[in-house]
Amino acid sequence: MDQCAIDTLRHEAISPQSLLIDGRNIPSVNGETLAVISPIDGSVLSTIPQADTADVDLAVSVARKSFEKGLWAKQAPAARKNVLYKWADLIEANALELAVLGVRDNGTEISMAYKAEPLSAAATIRYYAEALDKVYGDIANTPGDVLGLVHTEPVGVVGAIIPWNFPLMIGAWKIGPALALGNSVVLKPSETASLSLIKMCQLAHEAGLPEGVLNVVTGSGAVTGKALAQSMDVDVLAFTGSGFVGRKLLEYSAQSNLKRVYLELGGKGPHIVFADSEKLEEAARAVVSGIFRNAGQVCVAGSRLLVQKDIQSEFVQRIRELAEAMKLGDPLDLKTQMGALNSSDHLSKVLSYIERTKSEGLEIITGGNQALPQSGGFYVEPTIVNNVAPQSSLFRDEVFGPVLSVTPFESEEEAIALANDSDLGLASGVWTDNLSRAHRMVAAIRTGVVHVNTYGGADGTVPLGGHKQSGNGQDKSLLAFDKFTNKKTAWIKL
After folding, report:
1. DSSP bridge partners of 153
2. Is 211 annotated as catalytic?
3. How far apart are CA 408 and CA 390, in angstroms?
4. What are phi and psi of 392, to 5 degrees?
5. Residues 69-96: what's their mean pLDDT?
6. Distance between CA atoms of residues 260 and 243, nearest Å
7. 78 Cβ neighbours under 8 A, 6+ residues apart
């Protein structure tokens, strides 16, 4: 990446956005719009349509029509594969533009966003393009006078509601397998991070995706998201976001057509460091990266450091030094290591947790304040809170910001109990040089992902899914296909 190219792109004017329905850019029926506010400096970048029920119904009907006509679903697998490959190539060719557009919209540091957003999305689209013609049905082991066939079919119309922290990456996790199987999709980006997803979906049509197969409706979750979730003609809804919204989506499914709803609802990741680890410097860097990159706005963030008491003082001092050395600031500066929070509302939420921490008398050893208020943007210092008890709100609640709680433990059994003392179970990490202990911890910790002697970086070959109240269903890997298929049995008397 070149800083001069980034600086050029950061100043490009962004036209008012449109809905993408039936391959056309159109305004919302009511003409209402929402302002797009940049978290970098609080400036207004553009507007997006505030789609309501009429717009969503139109997008869903177009998606249904495209599916029933077989414009995409009945294309040969090789033809679908060719279009998806072209789309991935276009995403890569426009990667810097997409990354800068996304950073201006959501505040992720560009050094992370470039790889984690467009390049990750392109890799995901390619992965499912490569896999789509490897999906087979089954022949049952039946008596000789019966032929039992199990067909695998696309579900039809998929609704996808995407969060603001990694819109391209997570969007591709939903769109990639859904389209690869022949479904039609109605996508709703977050109202605070729509720009890069709109652009990426426009590139899909440029690659040859038939009109009506991929549609984008923008707007608030309370209006646009609700309308999509209550639609009687959406077969599957895939969502990444908060537990509060996830519960609402389940209610909307029950109120409508009982559509299948797949939820990834965040986590409160325990990052466990044992004294027997000989990689404590590497562990310290992983702990800092695991909570402070993207300003802690990561579903799998290691937001709870559980450290063995024997090394607590030394280890906490090291992560403090690393946190204080991080460059916080302009997300479009290649040297920046931690960018902005997504919105003023989210800034207020994170600061409220910090104020609660102060009122509880907990030990904030670094950070704890809003940063760069003169910028007009939404920044918080990397914050570490020591000796946090399990009953504290900071131990229990997903802050989704750059705030790390530190809790000591003495034994392996205590570490397991602390790790599992949460309603959430998405990701965790363990640092130990004891192989037997590593295997015991993997078996005992109730999270969908357990990292050992690393944190983050799991690629698309393995699934990501939550345990407990972190959700259901799997993103990534071949298992993601299961969300977007129906099984049909043919029982044939010979």
Report:
1. 486
2. no
3. 10
4. -70, 145
5. 98
6. 17
7. 133
Q: What residue ranges define each of the domains in the chain, with the CATH number in brackets?
A: 3-265+471-493 (3.40.605.10), 270-459 (3.40.309.10)
Cα end-to-end distance, the chain, whole Å: 63
Q: Which residue has the tokens 């044939």?
A: 492
pLDDT at residue 131 above 90? yes
According to DSSP, the residues that pair with 236 across neighbouring strands are: 158, 260
Cα four-point dihedral sign 447, 448, 452, 457: negative
Q: Are 449 and 300 in contact (CB under 8 A)?
A: yes
pLDDT, tens digit (0-9, with 9 covering 90-100), for 266-298: 999 999 999 999 999 999 999 999 999 999 999
Threshold 0.70, pTM exceeds: yes
All residues at 6 or more sequence positions from 430 whose CB lies less than 8 Å from its CB, including other chains = 272, 274, 438, 441, 442, 445, 450, 451, 452, 453
pLDDT, tens digit (0-9, with 9 covering 90-100), for 214-254:
999 999 999 999 999 999 999 999 999 999 999 999 999 99
Q: Which entry of 264, 281, 282, 355 is annotated as an active-site residue?
A: 264
Contact 484, 154 (CB under 8 A): yes
For residue 7, is pLDDT > 90?
yes
Identify the pLDDT of residue 1: 86
pLDDT at 273: 98
Catalytic residue among 299, 321, 410, 414: 299
Q: How many CB atoms lie within 10 A of CB 488?
A: 11
CA 434 – CA 277 distance, rounded (Å): 8
Per-residue pLDDT tens digits for 384-411: 999 999 999 999 999 999 999 999 999 9
299 has catalytic annotation: yes
